[in-house]
């Protein structure tokens, strides 16, 4: 299987930037897409961004595309999420995830992904 270890969260002030990381280990076959999702208190799992692992083509949720950048280091098997201008509403547990196949129509849907990291908590507060 594939294991994902996310990191980079913490308690931050509004307006700052964070870069979250996710290191993947395990079977690399069918390693097609990776994404970031988040779950805020009292809300369901929400898409943030996703990327075609091989081509680097990126996809963003409409609500966050102006403030986030997804990237990856293929050799290091590491996924990144840069979040700028953090807001209180960004407080959530952020999860990285891996999916086997690339489909631009469904890449931002949680059901696309088979493996999930443990999550890293981002708390934005003054």
Q: Would you write up a description of this structure?
A:
The structure is a single chain. The protein is mostly beta strands. Helices cover 0% and strands 50% of the residues. It has no helices and 11 strands. Strands 2, 4, 5, 6, 9, 10 and 11 form a 7-stranded mixed sheet that branches. A 4-stranded antiparallel sheet has the order 1-3-8-7, with no helix packed on it. The mean pLDDT is 94.
Short synopsis of the structure:
The protein has 126 residues and is an all-beta fold. The protein is built from no helices and eleven strands.
What's the arrangement of secondary structure elements?
Elements: E1 2-7, E2 10-12, E3 18-26, E4 33-39, E5 45-52, E6 58-60, E7 68-73, E8 78-83, E9 92-99, E10 115-116, E11 120-124
Parallel strand pairs: 2-11
Antiparallel strand pairs: 1-3, 3-8, 4-5, 4-9, 5-6, 7-8, 9-10, 9-11
């Amino acid at each position: 299987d594939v294991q994902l270890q996310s990191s980079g969260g913490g308690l931050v002030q509004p307006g700052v930037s964070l870069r979250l990381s996710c290191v993947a280990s395990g079977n690399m076959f069918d390693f097609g897409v990776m994404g970031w999702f988040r779950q805020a208190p009292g809300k369901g799992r929400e898409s943030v961004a996703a990327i075609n692992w091989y081509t680097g083509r990126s996809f963003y949720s409409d609500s966050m595309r102006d403030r986030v950048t997804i990237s990856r280091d293929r050799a290091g098997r590491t996924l990144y999420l840069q979040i700028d201008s953090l807001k209180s509403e960004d407080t959530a547990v952020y999860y990285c995830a891996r999916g086997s196949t690339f489909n631009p129509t469904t890449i931002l849907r949680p059901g696309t992904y088979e493996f999930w990291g443990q999550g890293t908590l981002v708390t934005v507060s003054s």
